[in-house]
Amino acid sequence: MIASDSxxxxxxxxxxxxxxxxxxxxxxxxxxxxxxxxxxxxxFPSPREKRVAPGxxxxxxxxxxxxxxxxxxxxxxxVLGDGARGAVSLWEPGHGEVLASPRPAYRRxxxxxxAYASAGLPGADWWVADGVTSRPEDxxxxxDAVEGLYTENGLWVAAFGQxx
Length: 164
Prior knowledge:
Helices cover 12% and strands 47% of the residues. The chain is mainly β and 164 residues long. The chain has 2 domains: 2-74 and 137-163, CATH 2.40.50.140; 75-135, CATH 2.40.50. The two termini are 15 Å apart.
């Protein structure tokens, strides 16, 4: 995929990884059977050590020069059941109980199961995507919506800074 913004074009690829350890500037993730350390995009809110935790799923953007950054995070939330008006009731340790709008990929989960949840993408306060998977590359989450958010708001060049 190619992302464009007003400052130029940043070729990139988005892939999922699971967080293992977190520091303020980077996190250690597991992806494609390998553990790597990836820095956070400059737009990623601080304090990162309190916002990102082991078990979270992240979107890692890769530029054509191989530079990588973490640009998004999905919470590992517990499904509590069906909420009002088609919403899904979830519990996430940092936010407590939330109501999330289901993404098209979401398949109804039994109470007590785990699903990927996110906040901040247009259209809803909270979204619930796929059930948690054992391999990050199998997660069916809204990478296209993350790409759209960065592209439509001209965030790619700033996200990569001097890395792209």
